[in-house]
Amino acid sequence: VSSELHVIDVGHGNCAVVTGNDWAMMVDAGASAAVIETVIHLGLTRLNSIVISHRDFDHARGLVQLLARESLEIGAVYIGADAAKNPSAPETANLLVALADAKRGGRCTVSRDLDNTFASTELSGGGVVVEVIAPTFATVMTGPTGRSPAGPKMTSNSVSAVLRVVLPDGLRILLPGDMDHVALKELIEAGVDLTADVLVFPHHGSLGTVPDERAFAADVMRAVNAATVLFSVGRAIKARPTADVLSGVLDVRPDVKIACTQLSSGCLGMGSDLPESPTQLGHLTALPAAGRSTCRACAGSITLRRPGMVGPVAAEHEKYLLATASTPMCRTLRPEVG
Ligand SMILES: [Zn+2]
Ligand SMILES: [Zn+2]
């Protein structure tokens, strides 16, 4: 297995798999069969670690199925405490029971201990370096519903893990989960280096709680300065990424390469016809993708290694996008285009 990072199309949600030399890790496990299917497709018998960036179910729901899959060895699961989650709500209770059983039975270690004091050797392996940039120690020790060191009250998103993965070929990928403006403010005020070559944009390109999405997106881009920005979105009535977020991204990097896992309703309205058969989506990688059978995929599941997005082939993805989308936002909003 070569060293790569795969951003899996799980619909609205996140899942990334990083493979190194005799080593693999997963970052987030969204709510899709594509999570387990990816483990099978890549032939993984062991995940050295699974990091759940934060406790929202579009990042955590797939963990229950991963733990239940006995043929998959798991080294360590990192998942935080969250006072905003009702422990007696059925789905949360289910997750907590699965984790407690795994911990008690020695299935894997389960740790709430993940913050920016980690040495970069802690999560790294197989030639891949994994840095923990957030949450900060003070944020973890407070948690959602508490006050951020930057001032405002924190949600589950404010405590999201922010990881930078550096592949052996040098490609740097920032996985910020659902980092919000509260978390970003804390990191920027502390002068933290957030730069990366590829960014999986936080919170699926739409932040309902951010007062000015365009300014937030521009702040993110100034801090990360990524040449490639990916959006992990499900096709839904609410267009994600929003036009404001895309505009903020393009304000800072007009030359940025953009790809979304599924086709945004901002690029093709929900009333419009999608391709009828998955065979018309020949540009997709062979990786499992939630939007393949439903033809909702745009870039689908994406493979990253130097120099950036190597699958799907950028030219093929663009050809599909231009043939399918009536208003491809990453084109129409680009300053020099329209
Ligand atoms: Zn979230
Ligand atoms: Zn999310």
Describe this structure in words.
This protein is an alpha/beta fold and 338 residues long. Helix content is 25%, strand content 19%. It contains 10 helices and 14 strands. The strands form 2 sheets. An 8-stranded mixed beta sheet has the order 6-5-4-3-2-1-13-14, with helices on one face. Strands 7-8-9-10-11-12 form a 6-stranded mixed beta sheet, with no helix packed on it. Strand 3 (23-27), helix 1 and strand 4 form a beta-alpha-beta unit. Helix 7 runs parallel beside helix 8 (243-252). The longest helix has 15 residues, at 90-104. The termini are far apart. It binds zinc ion (2 copies). One zinc ion (ZN) binds next to loops.
Strand percentage: 15-25%
The description of the largest β-sheet is: 8 strands, mixed
Per DSSP, the total helix count is: 10
What small molecules does this complex bind?
Answer: zinc ion
Structural class of the secondary structure composition? alpha/beta
Order of helices and strands: EEEHEHHEHEEHEEHEHEHEEEHH
Considering DSSP H and I runs of 4 or more, what fraction of the residues is helical?
10-25%
Q: Count the beta strands.
A: 14
Compute the CA-based radius of gyration: 19 Å
List unreliable stretches of 5+ residues.
Answer: none
Strand order of the largest sheet: 6-5-4-3-2-1-13-14
Global geometry? globular
Distance between the termini: 42 Å
Mean pLDDT: 96
